[in-house]
Specification:
By secondary structure, the chain is of the alpha+beta class. The chain folds into three domains: 14-216, no CATH class; 230-330, no CATH class; 347-409, no CATH class. It has helices at residues 7-31, 62-71, 121-130, 165-175, 230-233, 247-254, 265-278, 283-293, 301-313, 321-330, 347-358, 383-409, and strands spanning 42-47, 56-60, 73-74, 82-84, 86-88, 104-114, 135-139, 150-160, 192-193, 196-197, 205-208, 362-365, 370-374, 379-381. A hairpin with a 4-residue loop joins strand 13 (370-374) and strand 14 (379-381).
Length: 410
C-alpha cells in the first residue's frame, strides 16, 4: 500500500499520526479532568506510542484518569496510547526516545501490573481498601474473567525521586499479599498501555476511595531478628547510596559479617543476591562473595558459581550495598568513607554525596573536562544532566538545613 510513498512522506505521516493521537488524548483528558479537587492530583506523561519520541504531561486524579481509560478506544492494542508515572526531561536515547531511566526526573505514582491471572481485580480492590490505600485499578485488553489481568495505580502524596520507586512498588505488592505484581512493576520508567480495544470487553475501572497514599504507609515489620540473612534485615528497601558501591567498601564490610551458623539455603541465597547487587555482579565481587560463603562449612564452589551465574540472567532488584553495610555495622564495622570523618556539611561532604548519587551512571572525562552519562547504548557528553544531579544534592542540603533550623526553634 505504501510502496510508492517516499521515506520522507512516511516520516511526516508518522509525525502527523503522533500529533493527532496526542491531541485526542489531551482532549479526552481535559473532558474528564476533575474540577472538584477529589483525592490527590498527580502528573502523568502520556505517549502516543512505544517509540516515545513525543509526549504530553497531564495533571490527573484517579477519577479523571479512570474516565480517560474508559473513553479511549482503538482498533488494536499497539495503537493505544501509553502513560508513565512521572516527568521526563529533554534527553533522548540513541533511537530518539525520551523514555529512559536516565531521563526520568521524578515519579508521581506507583504502577503495578498483574499478568499472572491469579487474582481478580475486585479482590485486589478489597485488599487495598481494607488498608485504606487510595488507588485505581483497571483491566487491560487481555483481561478475561477466567484469566484476570489488570493494573493498579497508587498516587504518591508528592513527587519523589525515581530511586525510591522500587521501595514503594514492593510496599504496594506487599499490600496485595506479596508476589502479585509482575517484575516490570519495579521499573519507574516503564510505559503502560491504557484504554480499550475494539472487539474486546470494555476496560473496567475500580476506584478504591482510601485516604492513605502509598508513600505515607508504614513498612511491614521486617525480619531483623539478629539472623545472618543480609536481605531479610532490610527486606524491601535499597540503600540511599543505590544498589551498588565501591568494591573496597563492600569487601571491608563483608569481612565483619559472620556466616558460621547452621546451613540455611534461603538465607544464603538472599545474602548472595545482596552481594551480587552491591558489586554489580562483577568477577571481583564474585570472589568477595565466595570468601564470605566459604566461612560456612556447607559451602560448595560449584553450587556457588551456578547461583552467581543465575543472577546474571535474573538480576536482584532490591537489597544491595545498603543491606550489606547495615548488617556489617551490626557486627562492629565502621565505614572508612562515611563513619571516619563526621559529616560537617562542607564541600568534601557534598562531593561525597554527589559521587554516591552518580556512581555507575556518570563518568568524568578529565581530558575533555566534561561529564559523560551512560544512555543505555554508549557514554555520551551530558553536562546538563550532571548539573541536575548536583542541584539535587544542593536541594537535599537546603532541606536538611531548614529542618535543622526548625528543630532549633522548637
Amino acid at each position: 500500500m505504501f510502496s510508492d510513498v517516499s521515506p520522507e512522506a512516511l516520516a511526516r505521516l508518522e509525525e502527523a499520526l503522533d500529533a493527532a493521537t496526542q491531541t485526542l488524548t489531551r482532549q479526552n483528558a481535559n473532558l474528564w479532568r476533575s474540577d472538584e479537587g477529589r483525592g490527590v492530583n498527580f502528573a502523568l506523561t502520556l505517549w502516543p506510542n512505544l517509540a516515545a519520541r513525543a509526549s504530553t504531561v497531564e495533571e490527573m486524579s484517579v477519577e479523571s484518569f479512570a474516565a480517560l481509560i474508559r473513553l479511549t478506544m482503538r482498533g488494536q492494542k499497539e495503537s493505544l496510547p501509553l502513560f508513565s508515572a512521572g516527568h521526563f526531561g529533554p534527553m533522548r536515547s540513541a533511537r530518539g526516545s525520551l523514555r529512559t531511566g536516565a531521563n526520568l526526573q521524578d515519579v508521581t505514582c506507583i504502577v503495578g501490573d498483574h499478568d499472572a491471572g491469579t487474582m481478580q481485580p475486585g479482590e485486589a480492590a478489597r485488599r487495598l481498601g481494607a488498608q485504606g490505600f487510595r488507588t485505581l485499578i483497571y483491566t487491560t485488553s487481555s483481561h478475561t474473567p477466567e484469566t484476570p489481568r489488570w493494573r493498579v495505580l497508587a498516587p504518591l502524596s508528592r513527587p519523589m525521586s525515581p530511586q525510591g520507586y522500587r521501595h514503594h512498588a514492593d510496599r504496594l505488592d506487599a499490600a496485595l499479599g506479596g508476589s502479585v505484581l509482575a517484575p516490570e512493576s519495579r521499573k519507574p520508567e516503564q510505559a503502560w498501555y491504557f484504554g480499550g480495544v475494539s472487539g474486546k470487553p470494555d476496560p473496567e475501572t475500580i476506584i478504591v476511595p482510601g485516604e492513605v497514599m502509598i508513600d505515607e504507609a508504614e513498612d511491614p515489620e521486617g525480619a531483623a531478628d539478629g539472623g545472618e540473612d543480609l536481605a531479610a534485615l532490610v527486606p524491601a528497601t535499597t540503600s540511599p547510596l543505590g544498589l551498588t558501591a565501591d568494591l573496597a567498601r563492600v569487601a571491608s564490610a563483608v569481612a565483619f559479617i559472620p556466616n558460621a551458623g547452621p546451613p540455611d539455603w534461603e538465607a544464603w541465597n538472599h545474602s548472595l543476591m545482596a552481594l551480587f547487587a552491591a558489586t554489580h555482579g562483577s568477577e571481583e565481587g564474585r570472589e568477595v562473595a565466595r570468601a564470605w560463603s566459604a566461612k560456612n562449612p556447607a559451602h560448595d564452589d560449584a553450587t556457588f558459581d551456578m547461583r552467581w551465574d543465575h543472577f546474571h540472567t535474573s538480576p536482584p532488584t532490591r537489597g544491595g550495598a545498603g543491606t550489606v553495610f547495615h548488617l556489617a555495622r551490626q557486627h562492629g564495622w565502621t565505614d572508612p568513607r562515611h563513619d571516619a570523618p563526621p559529616d560537617t556539611g562542607g564541600d568534601l561532604s557534598n562531593a561525597r554525596r554527589l559521587a554516591e548519587r552518580m556512581a555507575g551512571r556518570f563518568l568524568f572525562d578529565n581530558t575533555a573536562n566534561r561529564w559523560m552519562r551512560f544512555d543505555e547504548v554508549r557514554w555520551a557528553d551530558d553536562r546538563p544532566a550532571a548539573r541536575r544531579e548536583a542541584m539535587a544534592v544542593a536541594d537535599v542540603r537546603v532541606r536538611e538545613a531548614l529542618a535543622s533550623l526548625a528543630a532549633c526553634r522548637t
